[in-house]
Automatic annotation (TrEMBL):
Keywords: ATP-binding, Nucleotide-binding, Transport. The keyword Thylakoid does not apply. This is ABC transporter ATP-binding protein. PROSITE patterns: ABC_TRANSPORTER_1, ABC_TRANSPORTER_2. GO terms for molecular function: ATP binding; ATP hydrolysis activity; transmembrane transporter activity. Residues 3-228 form the ABC transporter domain.
Length: 228
């Protein structure tokens, strides 16, 4: 990744409190176009809380998150939803596919939500699924595919609309290590190919090792790896 790539997401002294408890403490971070950033740390250290702040899912208690020239906290609900839908992608531990839709329909969902016609959306979904080796399962429901296939579908859905940033919370945490490695590799290759930045939360050092930049979260504080 080029050091010259522009910043797409910048957090400045972000804090998140749940009542009196401070889960994220004065975290500053910048993510460049196409950069893969990993955040590791023990359970309860605040990784997921930080991810939700960066993605505009939870409002910050203090500080600011900047994305494409906007402060997330200054957008109204409609603007924020549109931004999350169109410019961000999400992958979670268990894929979180919609059970009543086929693999292909699940993948096409972000394009459909952005108003793209069904035929075009499904065609693009078919292409992405093909790149991830999922041609043979495109008409199946999520309950009829394996765990690894299901996570690949989640990856396809997160990337299909070419978002600026994908937020991934333990994206391979439900897979065995061989499967996790392959899915992660395909995920990061596809993201790189389209210039999508990835913010990856994981407790797994082997997963974090694939990132361009690594941070460690401890007790709500974020530190570049090696600086502890
Ligand atoms: N909705 C909530 N209300 C109150 N406290 C919360 C809430 N969500 C998380 N916490 C607390 O905030 C702290 C950080 O939690 P968070 O889930 O961000 O950690 P994490 O590093 O992602 O953990 P894990 O690796 O186990 O998912 C923990 O002490 C947790 O108990």
């Amino acid at each position: 990744m080029s050091a010259q790539a522009p910043e797409v997401l910048v957090a400045s002294k972000v804090e998140l409190r749940y009542g009196a408890a401070v889960a994220v403490k004065e975290v500053s971070l910048s993510v460049r176009r196409g950069e893969v950033v990993a955040v590791t740390g023990q359970s309860g250290s605040g990784k997921s809380s930080l991810l939700y702040c960066l993605a505009g899912v939870l409002p910050v208690s203090a500080g600011e998150v900047w994305f494409e020239g906007n402060v997330l906290g200054e957008l109204d609900d409609e603007e924020l939803s549109a931004l999350r839908r169109e410019r961000f992608g999400f992958v979670f531990q268990y894929g979180e596919l919609l059970p009543e839709l086929t693999v292909e329909e699940n993948t096409a969902l972000p394009l459909r939500l952005a108003g793209q016609r069904k035929g075009e959306a499904l065609e693009l979904a078919g292409q992405v699924l093909g790149r991830l080796g999922l041609d043979s399962v495109r008409d199946r429901r999520p309950s009829q595919v394996s765990g690894g296939q299901s996570q690949r579908v989640a990856v396809a859905r997160a990337l299909i609309h070419k978002p600026a940033v994908v937020f991934a919370d333990e994206p391979t945490g439900s897979l065995d290590s061989a499967n996790a490695n392959t899915v992660l590799e395909e995920f990061l290759l596809l993201a790189k190919a389209q210039g999508t930045a990835v913010v990856l939360v994981t407790h797994d050092a082997a997963v974090a090792a694939r990132a361009d930049t690594r941070y460690v979260m401890a007790d709500g504080t974020l530190t570049p790896e090696g600086d502890q």
